[in-house]
């Protein structure tokens, strides 16, 4: 799922900051979860920004990095058994 835009996040925080509303009402208004609004407010207060966390690519396993080498070894040593 793609992260919400910074502009959208700012609208949510601004709507809550204007007062006379609850977190639940803001969440319902913008069709997001209550916990998302809470996290945005906390992030704004602690970090001072609303940028989403970076999502990194999954780390490749050691075996995936050596797939070519393993394929070659299996081909060369077909008669060998693992003990």
Explain what this protein looks like in three dimensions.
It contains five helices and no strands. The protein is mainly alpha-helical and 83 residues long. It is rod-shaped. The protein is 57% helix and 0% strand. It has a domain of 41 residues.
What are the salient characteristics of this protein?
83 residues; single chain; mainly alpha; 5 helices
What is the tally of helical segments? 5
The helix-and-strand class reads mainly alpha
Low-confidence stretches: none
SSE run:
HHHHH
Count the strands? Answer: 0
How far do the termini sit from each other? 45 Å
Global geometry: rod-shaped
Question: Rg to the nearest angstrom?
Answer: 24 Å
Average predicted local confidence, pLDDT: 87
What portion of the residues fall into strands of 2 or more residues?
A: under 5%
Q: Describe the biggest sheet?
A: none
Roughly how much helix do the residues carry, as a percent range?
55-70%
Describe the structure concisely.
The chain is mostly helical and 83 residues long. The chain has 5 helices and no strands.
List the helices and strands and how they pair.
Blueprint: H1 6-17, H2 23-30, H3 34-46, H4 62-65, H5 67-76
């Amino acid at each position: 799922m793609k992260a919400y835009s910074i502009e959208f996040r700012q609208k949510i925080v601004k709507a809550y900051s204007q007062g006379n509303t609850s977190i639940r009402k803001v969440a319902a208004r913008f069709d997001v979860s209550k916990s998302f609004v809470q996290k945005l407010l906390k992030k704004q207060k602690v970090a001072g920004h609303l940028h989403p966390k970076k999502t990194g690519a999954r780390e490749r396993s050691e075996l995936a990095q050596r797939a070519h080498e393993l394929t070659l070894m299996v081909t060369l040593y077909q008669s060998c058994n693992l003990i």
